[in-house]
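User: Here's a chain of 205 residues. Predict its fold as tokens.
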Amino acid sequence: MKSRNWVRLFISTLFVGGITTSIVGFLLRWNDYKALFSSFDIVEILSILFWLIGVGFIFSIISQMGFFAYLTIHRFGLGIFRTASLWNAVQLVLIAFVLFDLVYFRFQLFAEEGESYTSYILVALLILLFSLVIAYLKQRQTNSTAFIPALFFMVVVSVVEWMPALRANDKDWLYLMIIPLLVCNAYQLLILPKITGQYPNRKKS
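Assistant: Prediction complete.
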């Protein structure tokens, strides 16, 4: 990738992270913030907005680090396992493993007495469903071989990036971080060919 394209991707992803985090942040604590809008406390609103944008920039940088790390890992995976089909099988196993851990180990560590698996399964399921949609769009954008790598990136890398909030296990921070991460990861995955102007030959799946 040319340096000009990298700068364009970096800056645009920063904006995506900042805007997404701002929207999610205000929605998550709307009951606390709505009084500020009712009284039109512009100074307080702007201070919260700038803080959320700054946090969103951090999330977007984490997302970008994960994205470029995965591009490297993907090339290593293809080299180590020799064939794309074997590497894809390994990625599917890792996806299943990460989703299982996301449910089982979170439940074991943080569930209160009498709490069910439902909320833990729902979070993992929503991440998977969103990732499937993005992987499908990536496949349509490029070719059928892109589906599993895209799904792996959206599920596994997103969860790894999410680890600081997972360890804290604060509900607001969990959602404040994962939604921008997923949006930034999806944005990078889908926008990269448009920025570089390089599209693999499309093949019908």
